[in-house]
Amino acid sequence: MINGPVSAPQTHTVTVTGYASGGEGVARPGDGSATFIRNAARGDVLEIEMIHKRKRSARGRIVKIIKASPYRIEPDCPYYPECGGCDFRHLTYEEELAAKLLRVNDALRRIGGQSSRVGDILHTGQINGYRNKAVLHSDGVSIGFYKPRSRDIVAVGRCLLLKDDLNDAFASLQPRGDITLRSGRNGMGRPLEEELDGLVFRIESFFQVNTGAALLLYRKVREYADLSGGETLVDMYCGVGAMTLFAGRDAGYALGIENDRAAVGAARINAGLNGMGHIEFIRADAAEWDADIIKTGCVIVDPPRNGLSAGAVRKLLGLSAGRIVYVSCDPATLARDLRAIEGYALKDACAVDMFPRTANVEICCLLVKEG
User: Fold this and answer.
1) Are 356 and 96 in contact (CB under 8 A)?
2) What does pTM read for this prediction?
3) What pairing do the DSSP bridges indicate for beta strands 4-5 and 362-369?
4) At 223, is the pLDDT very low, low, confident or very high (cuts 50, 70, 90)?
5) Alpha-carbon span 242 to 194, nearest angstrom
6) Using CA atoms, how far apart are residues 316 and 337, in angstroms rounded to an integer?
7) Domains and CATH numbers, the chain
8) How confident is the model at residue 10 (pLDDT cuts 50, 70, 90)?
């Protein structure tokens, strides 16, 4: 059957040659279509059962591992792979990093038309216990995380990705609705705070879930911004102002733009906590804000997963900054936007492993104005 579930079991022997953006292994049976297989490793020879087929792609389920990949390991979590929280617990960490770099470079080449390759992926080396935030789901009976591609819940006792205090709190929760847990440098008390490189941040809205990797990312943003004290910095999606403050220490003036009211309030508090009177924050849409900025040295953009809107691209280009630092959590939309940001060349880029054991990857790019 094409474009739907397979009505009768169909088994094939396949060799996994790479990974899809969601972390599934990719194989190409005799018909040449791409088959996506969860919990597969590059180099696996597998007997698989087709469970869903379209004209040019399919999904398969592992029936038997005929020959295991050298990158395959025994998962260290009893809930994997039934739980959808992780994608790569069956791989060595080195192979996981390689898979993420392949994903980034494939998107830059195939979608963005870029010849440059990202050769570096920054990481802390900590693959467990790094998450400072958990979103838990409940059906009234069980509490835990969703299964892959499903709203069914996997009841979990402890999650290896979470900080210890979140796991301790998790154990006492009642199964009622969705629950969000957060932890900062001051534990789970209110208000939550984090400290990075001597700067203190009040967490009222979005903040990176991996504090250690966030420090690596913010240092790279500051390096790419390359401000020397007299320039103006604009951060078009500033959130609680973390990157604005981190890079804005080196600016003569910095402006953060954010559409979320709570985040803007937190950003202003953070500027005060860190004694940065030369940094301001306004509540506005990235595509529609207006401010009296004559000359911009650098613009930071860290848009949502769906990337820059056409209006945001126009606003960005209108600032005519010498440098743009683009931070993205989606290689495909980043690559698409690089084509739209005309008049700028990709000077440098690196990946950051913000979410170990998952397929997600962060990218930081430096764009330099041409001419």
Assistant:
1) yes
2) 0.93
3) unpaired
4) very high
5) 10
6) 11
7) 4-67 (2.40.50.140), 95-126+192-369 (3.40.50.150)
8) confident
Alpha helices in 36-142 (DSSP H): 93-110
3-class DSSP state of 306: coil
- Give me the DSSP letters along 257-279: EES-HHHHHHHHHHHHHTT-TTE
pLDDT exceeds cutoff 80 at 1: no
pLDDT band at 7 (very low <50, low <70, confident <90, very high): low
Query: CA–CA separation, 228 vs 244, rounded Å?
Result: 15
Sequence-ordered strand ranges (E) for 6-138? 11-19, 25-27, 34-37, 45-53, 57-67, 121-122, 133-138
Query: Which active-site residues does the annotation give?
Result: 329
Q: Which residue stretches of 177-210 are H helix? A: none
Buried b (16+ CB within 10 A) or exposed e, 84-109: bbbbbbbbeeebbbbbbbebbbbbbe
Judge whether 361 and 354 are in contact, CB under 8 Å.
yes
* Model pLDDT for residues 18-64, shown as the tens digit of each residue: 999 999 999 987 767 899 999 999 999 999 998 888 888 899 999 99
Q: Taking CA 66 as the corner, what is the angle to CA 62 and CA 72, rounded to the nearest 5 degrees?
A: 75
Q: Which residues contact 257 (CB under 8 A, 6 or more apart)?
A: 234, 235, 236, 237, 238, 281, 282, 284, 286, 289
Over range 1-13, report the average pLDDT: 67
How many angstroms separate the CA atoms of 241 and 274, rounded? 11
The letter for the amino acid at 274 is N
